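This section describes the prediction task in plain terms. A model, or a person checking by hand, is given the sequence of a single protein chain and must write out its three-dimensional structure as a string of tokens. No templates, partner chains or ligands are provided. The sample shown here is typical of the held-out split.
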Amino acid sequence: MELPRDHPLRSEVNEEVHARPSDALIAPVGISYLVLSSGTAERAREWQHVAMLLQRFKLAPPAQPVNHFSIDLGPFRLRFERHTEFVRYTFSVPPVHDEPFAVPAIAAVPADWLATVPGKVIVAAHAALLRTEEDRLDYDSIAARHFSGNVLVGAGIADGAAVALTDFRIHGDGFSRLLISDHGMLPRQAGRMVQRLLELDTYRIMALLALPVARELGPFLGSCEEELAAVTSALASSGTTDETGLLERLTRLEAGIGSRESASHYRFSAAAAYYELVQRRILELREVRIQGLQTFQEFTERRLAPAMNTCRAVAARQQSLSERVARTNQLLSTRVDISRQRQNQALLESMDRRAGAQLRLQETVEGLSIAAVTYYIVGLVAYAAKGLTAFGLAVHPDTLAALSIPVVAVVVALGLRRIRKHVA
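The expected answer:
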């Protein structure tokens, strides 16, 4: 049976739901987990670095750069995952020591390769998945033995099929620690649970990256609000001479707020998305409370929820301030426009008065022009009459000149009127 052509994105979208599958894990397993911040510009270097590691172990890297893959290199297994803001490396080995954190999985990774991995460390953790049949664990002993006596955070996970313990502390080697006691999880289930626990810590840290930004914005927004209040107060009592200075102050204020808002918008939006992922990963753990221990949800929400509320409040405050500045700017711009319109109206009225004066002056000049032209033409008539008298005609020059004055004046006036009408 032949089907119509596939949509160009059908395969890509269908495979997306199968992206980044968790590895199957069978206890005991030691895991070292690294998350490094890395931008788009670093992707080529990251892939070249991973390809160098595979070539060192006589393995060919994928033909094209990929965002995620998992491969067994012999001494350890590598899981590589590329995300928008960070890249994750997961190294896993069977434990080689009775103490799960004595010889971590990352010890099997070539040190020179590890030291030159592109990016900056955001999360570094050692995890140990151990098989145990004990229903009751001595948590005080575990804390003293593996977590430097720190207060433990933990719960039963997978509806009690395992117990996960951590202290969310960075130890002397620069790594945090996670201990999972497996009471009967299936391999794929164990892989999913370990992945969720590691992702929980990753997304928690990524969400909290917005908190320093929010704290830094607090004083800046406070000073901007004071400046806006001062400008608004001055606007209410200012005259037209102050409007230009106020508009300049308000424009600088709006530009500064817009710049900060553009710089922090992505961080706040990303924090909200990471916080949602944290909550989802906690739900997927299916926690069972252990008497005397904080669950992962309790510990995470105790500080993460207030931090996210702070970020949301600062983002809302920043947006509200930006809108208020824009409204004030619009109000002041309207006021400046009205002042300019008044000035333009006064200028037009002045021009009208000047035009009227010029018209009256022009009419006066035209009247004088009629008199002057009439004078010259009547003079010509008088000369003509004298010439006719010389030829013997009985013409009195003065009488003829006097009689021609009204006729010439009327003709000249009509001629000037016609010219003016033609020009108009």
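For orientation: The two ends are 86 Å apart (CA to CA).
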